[in-house]
Amino acid sequence: MADHDYRTEAADLDAADPLSALRDRYLTPEGTDLVAYFDGNSLGRPVAAAADLLTSFVAGPWGDRLIRSWDEQWLDWPTRIGDRIGNLVLGAAPGQTFVGDSTTVLLYKLSRAAVDAQVAQGRDEIVLDTDNFPTDRYVLEGIAAERGLTLRWIEADERAGVTLEQVRDVVGPRTALAVFSHVAYRSGFIADGPGITAAVHAAGGLVLWDLSHTGGSVPVQFDEWGVDLAVGCTYKYLNGGPGAPAWAYVAQRHHGSLRQPIWGWIGRRDAFQMGPGYDPAEGLHSFISGTPPILAMVPLQASLDVIEEAGIEAIRAKSVALTEFVIRLADELLVPLGVEIASPRDSSIRGGHVTLRRNGFREITATLWTQGVIPDYRDPDGIRIGVAPLSTSFDEVVVGMLALRDAIVELDAAT
């Protein structure tokens, strides 16, 4: 098929896309050199309305009301916005999700709370996998060193991910906690959330899910699955901006029985009493430590407005359509040039990005960035094509994939 035929097909797909009008809600500055953004799974585009919200925030609750805004609204933001995330993307009832801290800090807080409770029951093993995101592995290694626990490693397939069978083979009477990513950061593989959760519970352990590559792209049902704990960032598919605070989920049944290790003043029963000793607040509030990052939550609210308008099921349908299109273009344009598809072909077990592999992709990624085509590179030899359902067009996919093909051809010609 000629290049112009791919562009024509993409135009037809964009015209038929029920979410196409929402692309205009995302900022694309005039004069930009960007022609294809394939890194929405690392940093989402800004919602254009975020600028107005920030301006209004500075002039209004910050500039006008000043410190009075803490009592009037800000102290409720972590749980109010958390409830909204829970409702829109997590399948979680109110009172179980809050926003605050980074993903790393929340991983530590929830993991420590879980193992501390389980160690008292004679459980001294943490189950994790070799291909989980580095932060997850490092945090758990540190906790194991602190508490004298044993790490039970699952050797995960880098082109897939952790399977239910592998988890069943490893968990047992010594399992305190199992921690996995729902969507694998390298391959995009979707783990069996309800099956793995049930398997860990059957062994008597708790499970913590990292949804950094899931939230806002792949629907989940935490309450229905019986999830214990979960964390996720807000700067990918939730478009909260660079360094935006993460969210954490703690199932209602664990409130009052799990105690997180970072005892800050905001998490105390009466924060403004400033009294001696730490008396944790009731419920979810006890998992909050220090002053909430209020300013950083402002752009997130603009993004959640768009997600609410679209609906998570429609977002998922668009995500599947985009990744299917990426795989088809890769088969036709790139596989003949030695490229391998390193993500599941079955959309039911594939998240929001597609990983392609070939020698030379590190160099090619740098070349593409100079041309305004922005994927990201992950060892070994992988380019991730991250297509954000609400802001990526089918035409953008074609432009980027054609540029990738041309870069491979030029590299091969030069060598």
Automatic annotation (TrEMBL):
SUPFAM superfamilies reported for this sequence: PLP-dependent transferases
Required cofactor names: pyridoxal 5'-phosphate
Pfam families: KYNU_C
Keyword Nucleotide-binding carried by entry: no
This protein's UniProt keywords: Aminotransferase, Hydrolase, Pyridine nucleotide biosynthesis, Pyridoxal phosphate, Transferase
Organism: Pedococcus sp. KACC 23699
The protein's role, per its UniProt record: Catalyzes the cleavage of L-kynurenine (L-Kyn) and L-3-hydroxykynurenine (L-3OHKyn) into anthranilic acid (AA) and 3-hydroxyanthranilic acid (3-OHAA), respectively.
EC id: 3.7.1.3
UniProt-recorded name of the protein: Kynureninase
Pathway field: Cofactor biosynthesis; NAD(+) biosynthesis; quinolinate from L-kynurenine: step 2/3; Amino-acid degradation; L-kynurenine degradation; L-alanine and anthranilate from L-kynurenine: step 1/1
Assembly information from the UniProt record: Homodimer.
